[in-house]
Amino acid sequence: MDIFAKFENRLGPIGDYAEKSPGYFAFPKLEGEIGNRMKFRGKEKIIWSLNNYLGLANHPEVRKADNDAVAKYGLASPMGARMMSGNSDSHDKLERQLAEFVGKEDAMLFNYGYQGMVSAIDALCGRHDVVVYDAESHACIIDGLRLIPSHRYVYKHNDIADCDKQLARATELVKKTGGGIMVITEGVFGMSGNQGKIRELATLREKYDFRIFVDDAHGFGTMGKTGAGIGDEQNCIDDIDIYFSTFAKSMASIGGFLAADKKILTFLRYNMRSQIYAKSLPMAFVEGNLKRLELLRTKPELREKLWHNVRRLQNGFRERGFDLGTTNTPVTPVFMKGGLFDAVQLTYDMRENYNIFCSVIVYPVIPKGQIELRIIPTAAHTDQDIDETLAAFDAVREKLDKKLYPQEMPYVGAGV
C-alpha cells in the first residue's frame, strides 16, 4: 500500500471537517497590532485567544528593543549551534538573569519551548528510569515521553493519592532496573487553569525517592508575588528540581528556558540533541527577551492589571452561573453542554454577531458532549471588553439552552 493512501479518506476527528473550516475555525488569520482588539476577516473583534498575559507584545519599550536588536544584529547572528559557534555574552546574561529570577543556580536557553521540553525529557530519562506524569500534561511532555525508552506511569490529574500509587509501582520497578524516578507535572494547566499540586507532590518524598520536573509555561510571569511562577506562588521553589518555561506566553516572544542546579545544566548543555545540533536563539530574540524580563521584574503594575481583569472576568462569569471548572489562575475555561455542531455554531455566532473571538475546544481534546470556550485575559484588556464579553456569553448560552443552533456546519464563506 502507498504510505500516503491512508490520508485520502481519514484526516482525524477535526481534520474530517478541513474543507469547511480553513481560515475560520482552523488556521484563522488575525490582523493588525497584537492587542485586546484585532481584525478578523476585516471586522474588529475582542480577542481572547492570545497568551499575551502582560500585554508585552506591543509595549513601546519592547518594540524599541526588538527593532534596535534587529537593526544591530539582523536575524542571522549568531550563526551556528550554541556549542560550536552560536554563543554570546547576551545569551549568558539572559540565562543568569532567568536563573536568579526563578531561584535556581543556573538556566539554559532553548530556541523553541516545545522542542526544548521534548529534548530535555529525552536527555534526562533513560531506559532504566521511570517517569510518573500527570494525565493532563501538555502535548510537549507527552511527545517527549513517546520518544524515550523509559517506563511510564500516568496518574489521574492532580490526584496525589493516585500519584502515590504510581510512585509505589515505579519504586518497585527501579529496584530491578537500577534506574531513577522523575515526576513531571505542570505549574499551571493550560486547559483547566488549575495549579499543579507541587507542594503536595513534594510530601511524597517522605516515602519515595524521585525528582520533580515542572512545566510552568502559563505560570511564569503571571503567578506569585514577583511573577516568578508557581514556585513563588506556592512557596515551593526548592521542591522543584527542574523548572521549565517558554517565552511564548507572558514574555510574548519565542524560545524557552530550563532552570536547575548547575550540575544538571552542565549535563544538558552537552547532551541535549535539539540544542547541540540546531542553530542557537538569534541575538534579536535574546536582546528582546532581556528587555521583556526587565519589564516583567520591574513593572508589577502589568501583573496587577492582568489580575484585575482576571478577577473581574471570572467573578462576572460565576455570578451569571457559568461553569469555570477549578481554575485558580488567569486561564479561564467556560464549560457548556453540547456537541460539535453546537460548538461551531456558537463560535460562529459569537464572532459574527457579538464580535467576540475566543478559542473553542471539543472532542477529542475534551470528552464528548462538552464544549469549552477558553478565555485568556491579559493586561491589555479593558473593563468594556469584559462587560461586552459577559453579555455575549449570556446571549449565546440562552440560544444553546433553547436548542436554537442548527445541527450542521455553518457557512463561513471564503473570507477576505
List keywords for this structure.
alpha/beta, 416 residues, seven-stranded mixed beta sheet, globular, Aspartate Aminotransferase, domain 1, four-stranded mixed beta sheet, 2 domains, Aspartate Aminotransferase, domain 2, 38% helix
Summarize the topology.
Blueprint: E1 30-31, E2 37-40, E3 43-47, H1 60-73, H2 89-102, E4 106-110, H3 113-124, E5 130-134, H4 139-147, E6 151-155, H5 160-177, E7 181-186, H6 198-203, E8 211-215, H7 230-233, E9 242-246, E10 256-260, H8 262-269, H9 273-276, H10 283-298, H11 300-319, E11 332-337, H12 340-353, E12 356-357, E13 359-361, E14 370-375, H13 383-401
Parallel strand pairs: 3-12, 5-6, 5-7, 7-8, 8-9
Antiparallel strand pairs: 1-2, 2-3, 4-10, 9-10, 11-14, 13-14
Question: How would you summarize what this structure contains?
Answer:
The protein is an alpha/beta fold and 416 residues long.
